[in-house]
Fold this protein.
Amino acid sequence: EQVKGQLLDTLGWVCFYALSPNSPFKITPETRQQALDWAEIFLLDEKSGTAQIGARVMKKLLERNGLRADEAEKRLNLLVEKYNGLKDDSDETLRVALLNAMAGLVAQDSAYKVNAEKLYRQIFIEALNSKTDIVLESAIEGLANIDKTSALITLRTRGFHNNPSAN
């Protein structure tokens, strides 16, 4: 399992690099599709560590353009489904990994930023209710990636200026 995870993580990085505009080599759409399929399998796994790898790889493969709109939407929704399926007592590291993947997909250079914003904004806002600093930080990063001014207003309105966390 660990070797499979490391191989998928590496494949995600290779695909991410190959899909960048300045890459000296390219991958076929079929290779990307197979990597997305494996990322989905990992993401939907019950084991936290496996799902975290799936989320990381899914993010890398969705940050670059080149997928049909319906395919991109389906993959963006998988992160929402996994996040919403977490129980309150779930492993916080998985929750953070999913929020980090979503935050990366709403970042300025993400190919599917607009679609991801629609899906993830409310998740980030709801995650602000968490008592865990690392969850809060990931949610805030996501909101800031969408719109820094709006994020600041939301944080001030919700009293975050009094938050004891240094971050």
About this structure: Helices lie at 2-18, 29-43, 48-62, 69-84, 92-105, 113-127, 133-146, 148-157.
